[in-house]
Amino acid sequence: MPEGDTVWRACKRLNQALAGQGLVRTDFRVPSLATTNLSGRTMLEVVARGKHILMRLSGGLTLHSHFRMDGSWHLYRPGERWHGGPDHQIRVVLETAPWTAVGYRLPVLDLVATDDEDSVVGHLGPDLLSPSFDRALAIANLESDPERTVSEALLDQRNLAGIGNFYRTEVCFLLGLHPWRPISAVDVPAAVDLSRKLLKANVRRGAQVSTGVDRPGQRTWVFERAGKPCHRCGTTILTASLGEPTRERVTYWCPACQPES
């Protein structure tokens, strides 16, 4: 699932292309919005809120979307061939004079009043990439359930928004935390600060890097490195599933660098 930095970059590209442009044609291919026509409205701005995308339009409307596992937005010039996937995967087309934005495989797509955006993002905790990030609230949210594992707490977007499986895994490694350690035994301010530091460092990159080395095979400490030697100590990286069966995430850790106690 794309994480906060990936969504932030997508919103920046969409905003640069579409902000201030009038919509000349819209085509919604989801049942709930099939008859919706936004032609004539102006795209005011495109902003990220955690992993959510908010396209604010004139007339007080916001088009809300979320990538989940494999959704995406693509931008095309007039006459350019669309290559984001087969036509049956297209969920929406937003056309302006200079650009066409095409949303592929978007599992979340709805239209809300801009004044009512909280109905779709109000449950989120502080956004790690927001200039007005509320650090104290994020810390308090995480500490509110001291027996919860650090992995589950960091992934819960109600605590803080934008961190996903990559950052959660790498933050745990860098802080020497076993993935199942309870929040009560964690330096929560350090976890919050490191999470924000990593997302901000990667927000302008094309790749997510936690090691400081932007080369294939060296970008991560433990993420997606199951069975390989730890870069730090050489111990074999372990992997297991985390969470409820319906929402399992794969976690990775070094048993030497991240001891259980």
Automatic annotation (TrEMBL):
<dbReference type="Pfam" id="PF01149">
    <property type="entry name" value="Fapy_DNA_glyco"/>
</dbReference>
<keyword id="KW-0234">DNA repair</keyword>
<dbReference type="GO" id="GO:0006284">
    <property type="term" value="P:base-excision repair"/>
</dbReference>
<keyword id="KW-0326">Glycosidase</keyword>
<dbReference type="InterPro" id="IPR044090">
    <property type="entry name" value="Nei2_N"/>
</dbReference>
<keyword id="KW-0378">Hydrolase</keyword>
<keyword id="KW-0227">DNA damage</keyword>
<feature type="domain" description="Formamidopyrimidine-DNA glycosylase catalytic">
    <location>
        <begin position="2"/>
        <end position="75"/>
    </location>
</feature>
<dbReference type="InterPro" id="IPR035937">
    <property type="entry name" value="FPG_N"/>
</dbReference>
<dbReference type="GO" id="GO:0003684">
    <property type="term" value="F:damaged DNA binding"/>
</dbReference>
<protein>
    <recommendedName>
        <fullName>DNA-(apurinic or apyrimidinic site) lyase</fullName>
        <ecNumber>4.2.99.18</ecNumber>
    </recommendedName>
</protein>
<keyword id="KW-0540">Nuclease</keyword>
<dbReference type="InterPro" id="IPR015886">
    <property type="entry name" value="H2TH_FPG"/>
</dbReference>
<dbReference type="GO" id="GO:0000703">
    <property type="term" value="F:oxidized pyrimidine nucleobase lesion DNA N-glycosylase activity"/>
</dbReference>
<keyword id="KW-0511">Multifunctional enzyme</keyword>
<keyword id="KW-0255">Endonuclease</keyword>
<dbReference type="InterPro" id="IPR010663">
    <property type="entry name" value="Znf_FPG/IleRS"/>
</dbReference>
<keyword id="KW-0479">Metal-binding</keyword>
<dbReference type="GO" id="GO:0140078">
    <property type="term" value="F:class I DNA-(apurinic or apyrimidinic site) endonuclease activity"/>
</dbReference>
<keyword id="KW-0238">DNA-binding</keyword>
<dbReference type="InterPro" id="IPR010979">
    <property type="entry name" value="Ribosomal_uS13-like_H2TH"/>
</dbReference>
<dbReference type="Pfam" id="PF06827">
    <property type="entry name" value="zf-FPG_IleRS"/>
</dbReference>
<comment type="similarity">
    <text>Belongs to the FPG family.</text>
</comment>
<keyword id="KW-0456">Lyase</keyword>
<dbReference type="InterPro" id="IPR000214">
    <property type="entry name" value="Znf_DNA_glyclase/AP_lyase"/>
</dbReference>
<keyword id="KW-0862">Zinc</keyword>
<dbReference type="InterPro" id="IPR012319">
    <property type="entry name" value="FPG_cat"/>
</dbReference>
<keyword id="KW-0863">Zinc-finger</keyword>
<dbReference type="Pfam" id="PF06831">
    <property type="entry name" value="H2TH"/>
</dbReference>
<feature type="domain" description="FPG-type">
    <location>
        <begin position="221"/>
        <end position="259"/>
    </location>
</feature>
<dbReference type="InterPro" id="IPR015887">
    <property type="entry name" value="DNA_glyclase_Znf_dom_DNA_BS"/>
</dbReference>
<dbReference type="GO" id="GO:0008270">
    <property type="term" value="F:zinc ion binding"/>
</dbReference>
